[in-house]
Amino acid sequence: MRETHMNLELNNRYALVCGSTAGIGKATAIALASEGATVTLIARNEAKLKATLAELPQQRQHDYIVADFSNPLELSEKVNTYIANHHGFHILVNNTGGPKGGPVFAAGLDEFQSAFTQHLKCNHVLAQAVVPFMKSEHYGRIINVISTSVKQPLDGLGVSNTIRGAVANWSKTLANELGAFGVTVNNVLPGATGTERLSEIIKNKSSKTGVTVDQASEAMINAVPAKRFAQPEETADAITFLSSARAAYINGINLPVDGGRTKSL
User: Fold this and answer.
1) Residue 207, pLDDT score
2) Which of 21, 61, 202, 205 is in Cβ range 3.0-4.6 Å of 48 for a Cys bridge?
3) How many independent structural domains does the chain possess?
4) What residues make up the domain containing 223?
5) Using one digit for the tens of pLDDT, what is the confidence trace for 76-108?
6) pLDDT number for residue 46
7) Does residue 68 surpass a pLDDT of 50?
């Protein structure tokens, strides 16, 4: 049976987890709560937020914020209002669903703008909201869930490759600026992970190449040295470790959690 507790001593830590109603975001919220953190979920679907809230270990008073990442100004206002009325956050997990697939040459300007807004702009306003409290506590962990494409661009994900690279460089710059205040900024790069997003990618590959869904899935699995897809909980464990005091000297890195698929170091 999979161990669900790592004894990372996150009691008295407050965490804000984005995209936390499914996949890696939800698994991360559960993992952080299991380690003792008080978790605030954030996503746009209130019904799903309530359902996820009910699944969190209930030794703390967890909460949620309803927000749409297509509107960074509204997101900023909601999170800053929450902080003013409740508490700040020691941990921020930036996690948003990826842009739709397709070749970069065929992408419309609106696709770049939408992805830039939902990923980089929203990450930025959230960081601006939470960092003052992190500095005052001399403890902060910002973890951005992006993609292995920042090391090795992925075929058929042109807009995603482009925007993820921008987020990675924003993150490294921020890490350099905040390190002296006890705040670390790191990127987790998931490989092929058993989520709804992966199912969509496999279906797209199937339709574009003329192979069956099973064949497309098998080809992706064979490209991974581990010969399987990741479970969301495995990526969540890496995020949770980076959120802890034990990761205090890990800063400004890209951490692939991909079963060895990425060919570069």
Assistant:
1) 83
2) 21
3) 2
4) 192-229
5) 999 999 999 999 999 999 999 888 889 999 999
6) 98
7) yes
pLDDT: which is higher, 235 or 210: 235
69: domain CATH number is: 3.40.50.720
- Distance in angstroms (rounded) separating the CA atoms of residues 85 and 68: 20
What is the torsion angle, in degrees rounded to the nearest 10, for the CA atoms of residue 20, residue 23, residue 24 and residue 26? 30
Is 215 domain-assigned? Answer: yes
- Asked whether residue 137 falls in the same domain as residue 185, the answer is yes
d(CA 4, CA 7): 10
Residue 1: inside a domain, yes or no? no
